[in-house]
Amino acid sequence: MLSPDYVRPANLNDALQALASRECQVLAGGTDVFPACGDKPVAVSLLDITGVPYLAGITVEEDRWRIGATTTWSTLVRSQLPPQLHGLQAAAREVGGIQIQNAGTLAGNICNASPAADGVPALLALDAEVELSSLHGTRYLPLSDFLLGSRKTARRSDELLTAIIIPHRPAARSAFLKLGHRRYLVISIVMVSAVLEVEHGAIARAALAVGSCSAVARRLHALEKKLIGQPASLAVMDHIHKDDLAGLSPIQDIRGTAAYRMDAALTLVRRAVTEAMHE
């Protein structure tokens, strides 16, 4: 402990003790925390979790991938990962600039819960869960249940998001596409992630998620079911229509109208499915 307002524990138990004993702002990369303060000082105690070895790195277990809470975007980009996770890696390359990728973390991106969070559509399409730890134990929540709305999550004040868990599906292929006003360093207008499994020339499993078109990113469950059994060819695009995006509710702002976002989402969904098929 460097001061009453800054705690940097060396192990998970000390981090959880700190969360249980005071109101803390969890700090990993700080790429969302400090910009949110603007020109004002940080008003709450900071719990810096970057000194906890348990929270770092990407590991594969028997049937799942585990991404620790302090794993940075750059670590994800540089890792040798299978096609199942290539869409998530593509999303990582879209997060800010290199400096932000070197500091920012996947877990922080989730906990910030922005509707335009680059990592969320890719993780939703991967059926990701979050691991939440406290002094009372560990629980797991599907990412779709963890994200409650814009800037809102199901994390309790005494809990730390310790890892992101992704089911290991060796046959899966993935893609991620993002539309913005320029190529890099931009908040998205629309994002789409697709994860597919192809067997005997046909789509055997599909997962699609769209970001920046609702208060939280959304899976397109009806379209996923519709695609199962379709040939894994360019002809599949003829089966994807605007009605398949009915669950989205895009806003209208300076980056684009709601109608434009819907048109763009349709185009990106078609392209993402095609890219994932040929990954």
Q: What does this protein structure show overall?
A:
By secondary structure, the chain is an alpha+beta fold. It has helices at 12-21, 33-37, 73-78, 86-93, 98-103, 106-112, 119-125, 143-146, 221-227, 258-277, and strands spanning 6-7, 24-27, 45-48, 58-60, 64-68, 129-134, 137-142, 147-149, 152-153, 160-167, 172-179, 190-199, 202-211, 218-219. β12 and β13 form a beta hairpin. The longest helix has 20 residues, at 258-277. The termini are far apart. The model has no long low-confidence stretch (mean pLDDT 94).
Please bin the fraction of helical residues: 25-40%
User: DSSP strand (E) fraction?
Assistant: 25-35%
Overall pLDDT: 94
Distance between the termini: 47 Å
Total number of beta strands = 14
Main beta-sheet annotation: 5 strands, antiparallel
Radius of gyration equals 19 Å
What would the principal axes of the Cα set say about the shape?
Answer: globular
Which stretches are poorly predicted, pLDDT < 50 over at least 5 residues?
none
- Spatial order of the strands forming the largest sheet: 4-5-10-6-7
What letter string, H or E per element, gives the SSE order?
EHEHEEEHHHHHEEHEEEEEEEHH
Number of helices: 10
Structural class: alpha+beta
